[in-house]
Amino acid sequence: MALGWFQRLKQGLAKTSAKLTDGVQGVFTGRRRLDDEALEELEDVLITADLGPATAAKLTAELAKSRFDKEVSEEEVRTALAQSIAEILAPTAQPLAAGGDPAKKPHVVLVVGVNGSGKTTTTGKLAHQLRAEGKSVMLCAGDTFRAAAVEQLKIWGERTGAPVVARETGADAAGLAFDAYKQAQEAGADVLLIDTAGRLHNKKDLMDELGKIVRVLKKLDETTPHDVVMVLDATVGQNALQQVQVFKEMVSVTGLVVTKLDGTAKAGVLVALAERFGLPVHAVGVGETAEDLRPFKAEDFANGLMGLSA
């Protein structure tokens, strides 16, 4: 029997969840009362799961407000933490709304992020979702430095029935984005998804290239890009915070997609990101297939993280 999405999410979060539940259990082994020492240990547990020091301090302070020096069970603590985490995440749970407004046609989505974050695959999966919603989609293979990225996007194009605008390796990405916009406009496409390069080790080149793509798009339509979606690989943990900071300085990131949650014990970083940046989280990924990238739901994520049922 196919697993429901919450079960798949819970499975995907298993490594992080095991770290948190074992940690909480460890704190309350042979202890019933929520004292200063227990709170300090709990804070450490949250930090090791990459929720970050600021978030960990906030969550334990919240817990102390209602339960300090009281007898508590380990499950009670996990439930309370899950509720507080869901409250932090709730404002960020916003699906990507693209292609519904006739005034924004094509609705341009610039997909950014470092190489290896799952950017090209995510672009393909977003195309799959938008196609399933009945939207017409065009793809632009803007990561012109990696032939593999272009090939990968072409495969997604074939799978989803979305035309792909591509050029030879090393071609000017801004010129390509210009052509792709024109073609999407002529074809009457609802959405244009533009994949981009992500060579962070050469930040200046990347910044210049992204800036040029945005300038070229604005010449065609000053409201574009309508969305700048940053793809983050959860396995990098706290480094994700620095990546978001860097890309926010380069282009105004409007939302996040967090991938590879199933490959890491650091999925708590999503909570740290919400606490620090408050950017919309459009979707989360827990596997390879198009079905494994789904809109982000705060309560499901918080419960999955703390090993609770839906």
Short structural summary:
50% of the residues lie in helices and 13% in strands. The chain is built from twelve helices and eight strands.
Description:
Helix 3 runs antiparallel to helix 4. This protein has twelve helices and eight strands. The longest helix has 18 residues. By secondary structure, it is of the alpha/beta class. Helices cover 50% and strands 13% of the residues. It has an eight-stranded mixed sheet with strand order 3-2-4-1-5-6-7-8, sandwiched between helices. The mean pLDDT is 92.
Query: What oligomeric state best describes the polypeptide chains here?
Result: single chain
Largest sheet: 8 strands, mixed
Please estimate the helix content: 40-55%
The count of helical stretches stands at 12
Measured by DSSP, the beta-strand proportion falls in 5-15%
Shape: elongated
Please report the distance between the alpha carbons of the first and last residues. 19 Å
Neighbour order of strands in the largest sheet:
3-2-4-1-5-6-7-8
Rg is 21 Å
Q: Give me the count of strands.
A: 8
Order of helices and strands: HHHHHEHEHEHEHEHEHEEH
Q: By helix and strand content, what is the structural category?
A: alpha/beta
Uncertain runs are none
Average the pLDDT over all residues and give the rounded result: 92
